[in-house]
Amino acid sequence: MTGKEPKQHWNPDRYEANAGFVADLGSDTLDLLDAQSGERILDLGCGHGKLTVRLKDMGCDVIGIDASAEQVAAAQELDLDARVMDATRLDFETEFDAVFSNAALHWIKEADAVIEGVFKALKPGGRFVGEFGGSGNVAAVAGALVEVLESRGVAIADVWPWYFPTVDDYRVRLEAAGFDVEEIFLFERPTPIPGDIEGWLDTFCESFLKAVPKDERPAFVDRVRDLLAPILRDADGNWNVDYVRLRFRALKGGAP
Ligand code: BEZ
Predict the structure, then answer these.
(1) Which of 3, 9, 136, 196 lies in disulfide reach of 244, CB 3.0 to 4.6 Å?
(2) Burial code of 164-184, b = ≥16 C-beta within 10 A, e = fewer?
């Protein structure tokens, strides 16, 4: 969603079909944001704008940013102020009452650069509220991908696209930037996905799939699927991915 050289590309239709639930599950984080009508809000990693619209409908003056031009174009079709921007190079100063982010920060390994940009973008006392994948997120999926890729001689560090921090890791970074952390916690959220795990892998695991020659990808996905079925598929054939989320609310305090 956001970050420098994306190893992952986003197609708004594919995203909605395989991952429309991501925005639906963002409601609790929106509640934690507690947005008020008239507030100026930045939605960092807005994707195709499903939650950004909800902020606009609440009467907020909202800007969405995302690194994916395709997702931003879809958000603009919803009549949103959406902009293509790298979240590690935010270009705002002391203008937002709040910065909100759902399911985006795990795509950006340069966490400090994002946090510093958010701090600068907020007014004094402004809120940084978000949720993203935390330590242990999709551990079963990652384990299967690693097992099959390592058996093919792929160096996992070269293709690993995610940042899934612990509470301590992220708290320390927020505080170092000058934030007062009001709330931060990890929680497990086994997440039902629409359809087969193949669609999820296709949507979220591009950098792993790209490590395999194109003609061998179907067999690769089958192998990963076989490893995961006993863990993530229930008796009725429904898949639940082993999400672990990190949710936080922090306030811009004094200078760092
Ligand atoms: C997500 O964007 O929600 C996501 C990405 C990778 C793993 C799990 C979730």
Answers:
(1) 136
(2) bbebeebbebbeebbbebeeb
Protein residue closest via CA to atom 9 of ligand 1:
133
* Most ligand 1 atoms within 8 A of CB, residue of 48, 50, 71, 106 to mutate: 106
Task: Tell me whether residue 177 is in a domain.
Answer: yes
Give the model's pLDDT for residue 254: 63
Q: How many CB atoms lie within 10 A of CB 15?
A: 22
Q: Within 10 A of 139 (CB to CB), how many other CB atoms are there?
A: 14
* pTM, to two decimals: 0.92
Among protein residues, the one with the nearest Cα to ligand 1's atom 3 is 103
CATH value at residue 67 = 3.40.50.150
Q: What is the pLDDT of residue 8?
A: 76
Query: What pLDDT score was predicted for residue 23?
Result: 75
Range of 246's domain? 12-135+162-192+238-252
Q: What is the pLDDT of residue 7?
A: 67
Residue 58 lies in a domain: yes
Mean pLDDT by 10 residues, the chain (256 residues): 60 75 84 97 96 96 96 96 98 98 97 98 98 98 96 94 98 98 97 93 94 96 97 96 98 74
Pocket test for ligand 1, best of 10, 138, 205 (most atoms within 8 A of CB): 138
**Overall domain count for the chain:** 1
Please report the sign of the dihedral spanned by the C-alpha atoms of residue 129, residue 135, residue 138, residue 141.
positive
Nearest CA to 121 out of 143, 97, 141 is that of: 97
